[in-house]
Amino acid sequence: MTLIPTQAERMARARSDLRVGLPIVLGEGQGGLLVLAAETARADRLAALRELSDRITVAITERRAATLRARAYDGDLARVIMPTEADAHWLRDLADPARDLIAPMKGPLMTEREGDAGPYRLAILLAKSAQLLPAVVTAPIADPAGFAAAHDLTRLTAEMAAEDLARHHPLLPVAAARLPMEASEAGRLHIFRPDNGGVEHYAIEIGQPDRDAPVLARLHSACFTGDVLGSLKCDCGPQLRTALAEMGRQGAGVLLYLNQEGRGIGLANKMRAYSLQDQGFDTVEANHRLGFEDDERDFRIGADILRRMGFGAVRLMTNNPRKVEMMEGEGITVTERVPLVTGTNRHNAHYLQTKARKSGHLL
Fold it and tell me: DSSP assignment, residue 100?
């Protein structure tokens, strides 16, 4: 029946539920988990979980577990047994390393070592895909389908969640219009939206690029602090303006503005990372302490947009070799890597050194 939500629509609903503090059900058959995002868990819903089970578990990444000195028996994650006296404040302190100096005493922490960690791993990935802290509160339930129906909750099967999280959702054109800009009066802005209702991404077209020749292109990840506020902590704003200016000077180009703030972790988590940097950690270390990888971005989005716009080859403006590898892997020919040179200042010098040393950027 066409009115039944698709797999992608159920996943979109689950992300929204987690962001507003509503639990979701993960599982099928005779066993599953009730899952709450640690960041948005409310006291009344934590109390409801305790009524269901006397063994509430908080799943966190191995990186976060290492900071908390909790044993990660599952390798890439740890299942922390939530103490009976712990409340929502304890939970947020456990999940958010930016609060470690405020609330340093959380242990000793006991962790699970038996049972299948797969559903907990999927729950963490789902929280990350919703740009929430990678920490989830769980309670076991015996009848996932029945429980979800009785409480009007979104239910995902493990197979559905795993397949959707690994999938690239195609981007569909939504709107486009002429947009004169400082870089070029011959500008045009294209809006693309993924078929799962996720965030939109933009393509800024300068001039009338020849679709049969390599186009001067840049994949630029959104940076509210740098692009809009002129932050001195990064080089994003100067890179954006330099790239557009060069495309204007050459008379043609396309800049893809991808809404993957903070290397894909979102603005809120980027600000948490900034607070950790103020404590002395570099940008990579801060991401790790939050429970994220060095870079959570999906550059398949850029290749998809270029193909939909009719481009098959690019002269890529980037200092990041990974972008070149991704483009080539997605079938977009990179005929030239065009260095993107911007200045440094006393606020971003360490950041740029870290990008070169740990992320392989060619600066």
Answer: T
Q: Other C-beta atoms within 10 Å of 343: how many?
A: 8
Q: What is the rounded CA–CA span in Å between residue 123 and residue 70?
A: 19
SS3 173: strand
Whole-angstrom distance, CA of residue 34 vs CA of residue 39: 15
Residue 353 has pLDDT above 70, yes or no: no
Provide mean pLDDT across the span 255-270: 94
98 HSE (CA, 13 A, CB side): 16
Beta-strand runs (E) in the chain: 24-28, 31-37, 57-61, 77-81, 135-141, 155-156, 171-178, 187-194, 201-206, 215-221, 253-258, 313-317, 333-338
pLDDT band at 349; cut points 50, 70, 90: low
Name beta bridge partners: 36.
137
pLDDT value of position 197: 85
Q: Among all residues, which ones are annotated catalytic?
A: 295, 297
